[in-house]
């Protein structure tokens, strides 16, 4: 018996499909590690020119838990200015709006909208995981979505939420909310993705993989893209997997996917490795020579010398591919 698609209307505003980078935060090389907004402006434009279809700020790779409310607004204002200056003022900017209470998440959504974000990315609360029953989880997402001035993308990442893992039934239920438009599955569960895509068209509720190492399978399963920390390092190559698949060049997409998946292994290991790789492969191109700009914010620690070498070796397999792909050209500066 065929699975029947859900009878819900298309959402008013959907997250555009494609590959999104959860952008790292860059800091000044001081004891208190203030945000380096000038550096983040440059990095933002580099990622857009690199072909990324959208950017995510204040997610896990952006160290959202280590930024205060005003810093988050400063970053969003900066990157909206960066894409506007580049000539793409409507470029998709997703902001993390995850708080430990309903009220906090609603306030973060309102802050994000005012500062220039297009969508909000929302983790489930997890400080007191035992209190987050299914009823509490569903109520949380509905309450935030009711009040959010921007569409909400569910962020399912059990690794940072004390094991809280929204299942396909939960996601199917939440997909009917008019202001909940997509899910990012950092749980890496392709079976879950298929169960969701079997019930919804992409204009009803979209599915994104949580990394680029399974982008090809996500697209084959009916998903519409991914959010990948590797975009911070190799934006052109990661976006190219999606672009090739969309052009019907699946053999080429699969070949590039194999290389991308091997390179992403370093990102899976540690945020510190992702940030070091970004400095190693991108920092010089942006004029950011001081490695400390790419260190994680304390108490997180930068990569040690042994793992730096390993990271460059693992991720370096993609450097040649990246160099063959031209940057996008825009009408702005």
Automatic annotation (TrEMBL):
The source's domain of life comes to Eukaryota
Write down the Gene3D superfamilies for this protein, in alphabetical order: Aldolase class I
CDD domains from the UniProt entry: DHDPS-like
GO MF, one term, reads: 4-hydroxy-tetrahydrodipicolinate synthase activity
Q: Which Pfam families match?
A: DHDPS (PF00701)
- Which InterPro entries does UniProt cross-reference here? Aldolase_TIM (IPR013785), DapA-like (IPR002220)
- Stated name of the protein: Aldolase
Q: Give the source species.
A: Trematosphaeria pertusa
